[in-house]
Amino acid sequence: MALRLSNVALAMALLTGCAGAPKQAEHSSLATPAPAVSAATVPADDNLNAVAWSQTAIEHDLIYLQTYRDAEARLLPAMHDAGWDALSKTDRVGAFKQLRPAVILDIDETVLDNSPYQARVIKSGGEFNEADWAAWCREAKARALPGAVEFTRFAASHGVAVIYISNRAKDLDEVTLRNLRQAGFPVSGPDAFLGLGTVVDGCEQAGSEKGCRRQLVSRRYRVLMQFGDQLGDFLDVSTNTVAARRQTVAPYLPWIGTRWFVLPNPTYGSWEPALFNNDYGSPRDQRRQQKLDALRYQ
User: Fold this and answer.
1) Using an 8 Å Cβ cutoff, are 164 and 192 in contact?
2) CA 139-143-144 angle, 5° bins
3) What is the 3-state secondary structure (H, E, C) of the chain?
4) Does residue 117 sit in the same domain as residue 103?
5) Contact present, 56 and 119 (Cβ < 8 Å)
6) Closest CA to 265 of 296, 297, 238, 231
7) CB of 206 within 8 A of CB of 57?
8) Are residues 280 and 199 in the same domain?
9) Average pLDDT of each block of 10 consecutive residues along the chain (298 residues)?
10) Are residues 196 and 216 in the same domain?
């Protein structure tokens, strides 16, 4: 952490330092000059450490490997348990015991690594915007995250449908599917990819919530597991505050690590706007201050 001194504090520090300096200087003509104090400060970037960690820390990769390997070890026992289902009570529509088994996975930061896009945002000094994000998606260069390809291939090889539910816009469907295939993921069937804008008869989607699409899956599949990096990948969150998010997931805590597998994403997500009243329209420095205000110091 850089040490910042106000003008007054800096002046006092210099005066205090000068008070003791003359005696040393009297005995030496080679007194070491005080180091220069630079007035320049490095602008803060809240996302720098998060993206650097995501791209370079071996711990990041090990968490993904650990998660997907653990899920793989649990998949077949879950498939053979006729009463096993990983959809919330709200998302489960109708009986499921006779339905084909499936797993549901989010895409971004769950199976595909978009940290290069985040790095570009940091380098430019800007913020997320739909045009640049769409341009990155159209490059179809996102890499597979550790363990994800192996798990999805294992599931597919045992007759488990692999379904990707993403909030990428509908016009990015084709490039997203190409990216998934190029990265080695199994993609097959009309239900393989359900992007933002998917129409679900009898269900009205609220914003970018995925509940309607999970309900669509529930009509055709028994869902064994769900994977995501956001709470909204598992259930809809009606009120996006820190307290409400904890309360919403509380009934499903026994499912974490057995039916629901949550992956780390410190770079973005609905957890962040929960700290500044979900108001992305407020000034950037104001949002940053509200995040600082949310920190605990003991």
Assistant:
1) yes
2) 135
3) CCCCCCHHHHHHHHHHHHHHHHHHHHHCCCCCCCCCCCCCCCCCCCCHHHHHHHHHCHHHHHHHHHHHHHHHHHHHHHHCCCCCCCCCCCCCCCCCCCCEEEEEECCECCCEECHHHHHHHHHHCCCCCHHHHHHHHHHCCCEECCCHHHHHHHHHHCCCEEEEEEEEEHHHHHHHHHHHHHCCCCCCCCCCEEEECCCCCCCCCCCCCCHHHHHHHHCCEEEEEEEECCHHHCCCCCCCCHHHHHHHHHHHHHHECCCEEECCCCCCCCCCHHHCCCCCCCCHHHHHHHHHHCCCCC
4) yes
5) no
6) 231
7) no
8) no
9) 38 37 36 49 83 98 98 98 95 92 98 98 94 97 98 98 95 96 95 92 89 96 98 95 97 98 97 96 94 96
10) yes
| Per-residue pLDDT tens digits for 104-117 | 999 999 999 999 99
Tell me the C-alpha to C-alpha distance, in Å, between residue 160 and each of 72, 154, 222: 12, 9, 10
Domain containing 293 equals 268-298
Of residues 51, 191, 38, the one with CA closest to residue 113: 51
d(Cα 77, Cα 224) in Å, to the nearest integer?
A: 10
Location of structure tokens 């291939």: 153
Alpha-carbon distance 233 to 227, whole Å? 7
pLDDT tens digits for 86-133? 999 999 988 898 999 999 999 999 999 999 999 999 999 999 999 999
Could you tell me if residue 188 is inside a domain? Answer: yes
